[in-house]
Amino acid sequence: MKISIVGLGVIGGSFAEALKTAGYEDVYGIDNDQATLDTAVEMGIIKAGYIDGKDILPETDLTIMALYPKTAVRFTQANHDYFKTGAILMDTTGIKEKFIADMAEVVPDNIEVVYTHPMAGRENRGIAYAQGSVFQGANFLLIPTDMNNEDSLVFIEDLANELGFGKINRVSAAFHDQMISFTSQLPHAIAISLMNSDHEKRETGKFTGDSYPELTRIAKINEDLWSELFIDNKKYLLQSIKDFENQLDLVKKAIRDEDSDTLKTLFIKSTTNRLKLEEQMDKRKIKRK
Amino acid sequence: MKISIVGLGVIGGSFAEALKTAGYEDVYGIDNDQATLDTAVEMGIIKAGYIDGKDILPETDLTIMALYPKTAVRFTQANHDYFKTGAILMDTTGIKEKFIADMAEVVPDNIEVVYTHPMAGRENRGIAYAQGSVFQGANFLLIPTDMNNEDSLVFIEDLANELGFGKINRVSAAFHDQMISFTSQLPHAIAISLMNSDHEKRETGKFTGDSYPELTRIAKINEDLWSELFIDNKKYLLQSIKDFENQLDLVKKAIRDEDSDTLKTLFIKSTTNRLKLEEQMDKRKIKRK
């Protein structure tokens, strides 16, 4: 089986590494940057690299597309005529409803797209930060569509398992986008706003314990990718921000009223919820072993 | 020099450990929980433990008070007559303006209080989570008052240095409280609100990468301590929340307007600010070595 990875950034590069570790050798890269392709070849994680999809797609059985949503649509459209009949095109973008609709316009009839979301993004970009190990125990979401064959879905699930992902779950595009707006995009919106609300010229680093650095790690953000993700998931993200603001309003009101009992109730609730989450995460780690 | 630590929780216990590591042997504990005192003696981090301050304070040269603000005031008041003349009472609470005013009412004339904030809190409570190593490279803030002698301030700064703290800085109570409302309390208010805005019964753990777990670690919170800190720092905390909300409003508006350029500008700003913070933190680490 020939596998091609499109986009050798932090995610694509990590797939290349994880595939290598899992024993896959017939792996190729497609990227618009020759230096990145050269690096990937030197690292030994791809056999050869191509600027042009048409030079390798006609022989490729599985294409893993690790591109930003709009770029992924453009790539699929531009290579419409070059995919091998019966091939699987695996998507890895972080939004689904709008993206699946956009893709439906450009996908050729002779291939099958499997929509997935490997939840292992990083705040750094580029192949230098690629690491196959980031997938170990990570969540992997699979979003079936009416166009999918069960065999293809199972094939991708097996591959995800082989590459070390922890929980592998099938969900609808709508539920995916709703959950991701809460667990991924909202935290990013918060981290950015927290970081940007610092006053200029304060030496904030002198006044922090762990909290502020931890809550702002993801304020270092890839602006091209995330502006797309935010806008394409507008409906759910605005709702998640609203839900968050409602909770923050409760905290604010309790502070303003010096209402210690309400604050304690909110803190006990958040503690309980956090412990539940930790339990879910621990189970994941246990499963991993 | 005899040192007594009041309150052998996560902070007091960590001081006991750090003092032991630094070679201090004449260290005692005061706590209202006999089991905690027994544990500390078994761990070898205190020589002996006392429920009652009056049994050891008359011989104590340095008292490190690791209590919640209100409890610290009560402890000082209750032991008004037992402090050794010329002793130093070191405070470690997370708020200062209101606390210093409250303390002024109860501190006996024959001792000197040095107000500090060792920035090494933990989301877990109790001696079981005490670790002297949490102070390594951590920020240590010292808040001089009109009552302080320079010698006493330098004495505490030297001690902080010896215990492994990184940056040691003197600041005013007002600036301390303003900065802490931003770097510590606001992140906690955010983490709590994020955690509490999850919908009931969703298996959120299946849908997370690193962001959500990271931004909610501190949603596991000591409700007694933090309700005090939030309310006692009301003025600055409400302002910091407001500043944060203003920034979040900019993100929201840009999403609503599908204004990709504004989003990118906000993301680039947060990235730049974060890199600045990392540079400050790296310098701290370098200094530590």
From TrEMBL, chains A, B:
Keywords: Oxidoreductase. GO terms for molecular function: NAD+ binding; prephenate dehydrogenase (NAD+) activity; prephenate dehydrogenase (NADP+) activity. This is Prephenate dehydrogenase. It comes from Aerococcus agrisoli. PANTHER family: PREPHENATE DEHYDROGENASE, PREPHENATE DEHYDROGENASE [NADP(+)]. One of its GO terms (biological process) is tyrosine biosynthetic process. Pathway: Amino-acid biosynthesis. InterPro entries: 6-PGluconate_DH-like_C_sf, NAD(P)-bd_dom_sf, PDH_C, PDH_N, Preph/Arog_dehydrog, Prephen_DH. Belongs to the prephenate/arogenate dehydrogenase family. Residues 1-285 form the Prephenate/arogenate dehydrogenase domain. Pfam families: PDH_C (PF20463), PDH_N (PF02153).
